Amino acid sequence: MLTESIIDSEWGNREPIQALKDYGVGIDTHSKFIAVCVLVKEGYNVIKYERDFPTSWKALKEARNWVVDVIRTKSVPTVLNIEPLHYSIESTGTYHLPVLKAFGGTPSVVNPLLASPSRRKTDKLDAKLLAYQNMTGLWPESFVISDKIQELRIIMRQRQFHQQMATSIANRINNYILRFGHTLGSIDSVTSIKSRALIEDMCDGHFIPSDYICPDGFPDEVKSVIKSMYADYDTHKEKAHEYTKQALKLAKAINWEIGKGRTISGKKLFAHFLTIPGIGEITTLIWLSQIVTPTRFKTAKQVAAYCGCDPSLKVSAGKVTAQTRRKGNQEIHYALVKCASALIQKHNEPLGQWGYGIYRRNLKGGWKKACSAVARRLAVAMFYVHKLGVDFSY
């Protein structure tokens, strides 16, 4: 067991970093097979066992049983507490997810760039390095979401896809009409009621005089293209709306875990989140689907870093050489920055006024700095509202 840090006057600060575990398991994943390496103690030696398995569900369960058998029968002294099984595995798109479901336990999901920085790269070497890292406790335990949260994420991903497709189609419509001298998109969106009505009238052969419409209209073939694009736009917007309703229904039906081992109904938690300035239902859905529970994080600073809102300093020789910002979770970061931007534009409440002050004081890059600062405060606010299960207050 690790002990607390001790300051020794002669030897300096003595602080245990990590405890050596009784065994280590490393898994290198691919689409067709997985390479598994198990390291066990045999007296003062560490013995390696390796084996490849196909990625069928039956084979993945056999792989888990083989790992447990190796640890139980080959360890000297015998390992008494194998469960929950701990192991390190590379995060490879979605190929590692069936392995997590079959193995269960407490995995450490590792970025491949961090897990295998060696020059030589083979499946066995990767699995061996992961097993060694698992045995030494290098990587922390990863948070594994439930099937219900996975369902919510898929629905949100589908909503995002259709929303992006609708935006892409709208941009293409504006691109096409500009080619023929129509600049309606400069004053309003081409999907607004007024602009869309004017464009569709031109596609039907009706010319309506306007300062932003060229008298030449559209060629016949282009008219049919634009009309079909508007139909596709409506389809994607309708799909996005349907997925939004499904996600809201699912999220409000879940009992969400909050601080101190308590749970709260999704309906009540939504009501608490909506008291935060600038936060709406979509941002709340994104937050819940990605954060899931505030108990994953020890401090608000960790949450801000996860959301890509916390600056990191590069220090060399005791001096700050650079300041960078981690990307973090892109979906949450984009949603929070969008909310922050709306608050600063209105600046009719304290948080928006504070951000507007930052924008006015920094002539160069002031808007970006203000949005980042307000987004960070929104992330901290959502964390405490989520953790405490209460309404927002300044």
UniProtKB/TrEMBL annotation:
Residues 273-349 form the Transposase IS116/IS110/IS902 C-terminal domain. GO terms for molecular function: DNA binding; transposase activity. Residues 25-176 form the Transposase IS110-like N-terminal domain. It holds the Pfam family DEDD_Tnp_IS110. InterPro entries: Transp_IS110-like_N, Transpos_IS110, Transposase_20. One of its GO terms (biological process) is DNA transposition. It comes from the Bacteria. PANTHER family: TRANSPOSASE, TRANSPOSASE FOR INSERTION SEQUENCE ELEMENT IS1111A. This is Transposase. It comes from Sporolituus thermophilus DSM 23256.
